[in-house]
Each structure stands twice: as C-alpha cells, then as structure tokens.
C-alpha cells in the first residue's frame, strides 16, 4: 500500500507549571496532612452552611408530629413517615424520582461551578472539618500538632491524644445514634442504648456507623475524596472550559518568589505569588492548586481565603487564586448559557415537574384486586353468573378512614355481595371479600371490562375517588 496518512506536528509546547520542590513539608512521614486554619469569606460560608445542615440532621428526628416522630423510616413495617406524608413500597417511583432529580442537580451544579458539593455540603467534608476543629482545640495549631507528633510519648502528649480520640468517638457515637434514630424511635433508642437494652441488630448498626464515622472523618479523611469516592473520577466528564473552578492565575502569579512588602515585583522579575505555600497548608486534600486543575480539588475555597489574606497584606490585588474558568484564564470570555448546562437544566426542570405532579396526584390510599384462583366464574342456583374477588385496601394516610366501594360499567343491574363501606385504620391493610352477581341477559360478552370504584370522603374536603380496572367472566356461549 502506498497511501500514507499525513501527521500534523504541533510545535506549540504544552505549558506545565511544575512544583517548586518534590518534598511535602505539610505532610509527615506517614503522609498525614496537617490542615492549617484559615479565615475568609468562603470558609465563613462553608462553616455556616455546614452548621445549618448539621443542625437539621441532628434535630429533625427529635421533632414530634401528631404524637409521633415527624421523620421515621420504619423499615420492618415498610412505612416511611415524613410529617403528614406516609410513603409505602408502592410509592417507590417517588424515591426513584428523587434520586434522578438529585443526580441531574449534581450534574448541573458541577457543570456550572465545579465540585462545590464536595467542598461545602458533603457529609465527609463537614464531619472532617468538625474533627479537625477538635484537633485544633486540643492539640493546637498546625505547627503545634506537627511538633507534638514528632515528640516521643509523654504524659502531656498521651493526655491530649486520648482526649482528642475520646471527643472523636463520642461525637461519632452521637452521629451514629442520630442516624439510626431516623429508622427507629430516637428517644427510646438513646435510653435503651445507654441502659444496654437494645436489640442485637440496632446495637450492631449503632456501633458500626460509629466506627465508620470515626474512621472516615478521623483517619481516612482526604483518602475518601481522592481514592474512594467515585464522584472524583467522573466529575471531569462534566467539566468544560466555562466551568467555574478554584484556579490559580499563572499569568499573574509567575514567576513566583519571596520578596519584601516594599519591593517592586516587576523590577525583580516576579509575579504576585510570593511562594508562601499557605494555599497548600490550608488544603484539606493536600494539593498545590498552582499546579493546575486536579481531580483531588473539592472546590472548598480554602486556598482562595488564604491567598487573599496574603495579597491583602502585601498590598496586591486579590484574586490570584479565585473561582474562574479556563476560558477566562486564557484571556477569553466565558459563556454561562451553553448547550450542556442548558440541557442539564431543562432535564432537571422536567424531572422536578414530573415528581411534583406525581406527589400532588398521589392518592392517600391504594386498591389491589385479587380474583378467586379456583374458578373464573360460577353459576348459582338462580342461573346468574357470579365472580368472586378479594379487595385489598391500603390506607396510606395517618388517620383512620372510611372507604365506600362500588362497581362501574359492569351491567345495567348487578348484585354486590359483601361490605360496601369499610373502615381501615391508619397505615393498615383491609382484605374485603366481594362477589358480583349478574343475570346472563345483562352480559353480552364472555368477558366484560369494568371498574371497581373506591371513594374516600375526608371531612370538609372534596371526595377522592380511585378507579381500578378488572374483568367479569361469563360462561361460554
């Protein structure tokens, strides 16, 4: 073969910003990251958001509603109570809608502003920073913690370490009890646990989630974000040049180097970065944002607050590290409204609308029809055709309800043998045996489609009616 494929050579070199050194002064010999405390706008926002969601998580199981726990996911009884709403396995589609909406909301937010879910709202991040707060209060600042770990064991070191781990374990236990409290009565759970009266499985799950919280937030920390969490791996598929991420402005910052406050960086041939490494020391995942976009970055903004503080002290303009896009850093103009973002937004709106419609149109009761399995029909002594059914009525509400039963589109005349008015207790299922009898002259086909009609008449409200299709079988002609 003589045909050749022309290969175009790219003479433009790829610009890579290397790290200044291969050592990691912010890590110890066992690769532990010592996170430095930092104050600033984004850390204030993160802390307040974490406080709100933490308070919601801790308080919601304790809220009473109509004499019951407001939020209780009763797995043994397959009953999920959320204030006045009770969900059953038949409502599994609503749960599917919630997961779909959450997924597309994550896609939408990630495409627009990167991995902010991880940095501000992810439980792993929130609990990790809480554990770091315990470290700071007990063992001191970053340098003090590093110095303490380098010292041989002493009474003071043992006391601080023991106190820290005790606080971690107690907070993990409180977290675990709260979480399990969403699935069982939380007041009884606390009493039974501390009086050693819990059942085996409840005690097992409390201890299991305590160990998981203690291990994840106390020891694994960034390992969960960088190696275990799948979101870190597929987030790049949602990024583009117009995604706002925490980025370092290399055009402005390079070449980096130390200098005095009064020195003119232009005369020294330096950029605005003074190479203080504070952006690395405050990073909870231990990366250097100056090396470019990295999948380990959780977009928490800690490096932005640290760098802005340094820029302010040096008298430089803030924003050397900031939320920006790759296109802006290249000197272009970013486009917020773009195909992928609009597509995710439209799908999110459609899914949310469908979920809202399913929730609004959801009936507070359900009807299942079971035919007599022994025979499709039988002929009684009068020569009339009789079909037998068992009606299973599920009361999905939290109140006792009286239901009215009837048949529609069956025949001009029919006899109903069985109860037509049924009381069903809250969250209960009633089995109602029913026989329908029709004279042969009123049946024109060997199989007639009709509807069972169940009506609920709430006080001071419009009746709610549900139609369930069934079939009435006739003898062969």
UniProtKB/TrEMBL annotation:
GO CC field: plasma membrane
GO MF: 4 iron, 4 sulfur cluster binding; metal ion binding
Keywords, sorted A to Z: 4Fe-4S, Electron transport, Iron, Iron-sulfur, Membrane, Metal-binding, Transmembrane, Transmembrane helix, Transport
Limits of the 4Fe-4S ferredoxin-type domain: 264-292
Record flagged with keyword Ribosomal protein: no
Matching PANTHER family: FERREDOXIN-TYPE PROTEIN NAPH
Protein name as it appears in the record: 4Fe-4S ferredoxin
């Amino acid at each position: 073969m003589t045909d050749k494929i022309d290969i175009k050579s790219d003479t433009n070199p790829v610009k890579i910003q290397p790290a200044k050194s291969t050592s990691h002064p912010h890590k110890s010999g066992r690769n532990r990251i010592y996170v430095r405390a930092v104050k600033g706008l984004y850390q204030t926002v993160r802390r307040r958001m974490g406080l709100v969601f933490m308070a919601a998580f801790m308080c919601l199981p304790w809220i009473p509603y109509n004499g019951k726990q407001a939020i209780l996911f009763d797995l043994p009884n397959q009953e999920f109570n959320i204030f006045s709403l009770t969900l059953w396995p038949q409502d599994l589609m609503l749960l599917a809608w919630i997961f779909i909406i959450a997924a597309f909301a994550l896609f939408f937010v990630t495409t627009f502003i990167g991995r902010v879910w991880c940095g501000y709202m992810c439980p792993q991040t929130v609990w990790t920073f809480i554990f770091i707060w315990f470290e700071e209060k007990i063992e001191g600042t970053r340098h003090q913690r590093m110095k303490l770990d380098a010292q041989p064991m002493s009474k003071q070191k043992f006391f601080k370490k023991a106190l820290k781990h005790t606080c971690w374990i107690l907070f993990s236990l409180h977290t675990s009890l709260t979480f399990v409290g969403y699935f069982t009565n939380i007041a009884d759970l606390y009493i039974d646990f501390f009086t050693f009266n819990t059942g085996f499985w409840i005690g097992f799950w409390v201890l299991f989630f305590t160990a998981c919280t203690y291990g994840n937030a106390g020891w694994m920390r960034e390992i969960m974000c960088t190696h275990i969490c799948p979101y870190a791996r597929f987030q790049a598929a949602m990024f583009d040049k117009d995604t706002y991420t925490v980025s370092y402005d290399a055009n402005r910052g390079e070449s980096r180097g130390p200098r005095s406050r009064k020195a003119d960086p232009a005369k020294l041939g330096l950029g605005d970065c003074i190479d203080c490494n504070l952006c690395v020391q405050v990073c909870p995942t231990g990366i250097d944002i100056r090396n470019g976009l990295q999948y380990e970055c959780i977009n928490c903004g800690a490096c932005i607050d640290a760098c802005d503080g340094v820029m302010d002290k040096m008298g430089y303009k803030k924003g050397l590290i900031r939320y920006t896009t790759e296109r802006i850093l290249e000197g272009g103009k970013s486009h917020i409204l773009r195909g992928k973002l609009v597509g995710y937004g439209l799908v999110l709106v459609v899914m949310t609308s469908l979920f809202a419609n399913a929730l609004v149109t959801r009936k507070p009761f359900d009807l299942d029809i079971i035919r007599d399995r022994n025979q499709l029909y039988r002929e009684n002594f009068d020569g009339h055709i009789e079909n037998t059914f068992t009606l299973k009525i599920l009361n999905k509400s939290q109140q006792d309800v009286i239901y009215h039963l009837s048949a529609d589109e069956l025949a001009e005349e029919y006899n109903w043998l069985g109860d037509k008015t049924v009381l069903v207790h809250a969250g209960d299922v009633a089995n109602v045996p029913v026989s329908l009898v029709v004279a042969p002259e009123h049946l024109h086909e060997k199989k007639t489609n009709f509807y069972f009609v169940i009506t609920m008449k709430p006080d001071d409200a419009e009746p709610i009616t549900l139609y369930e299709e069934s079939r009435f079988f006739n003898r062969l002609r």
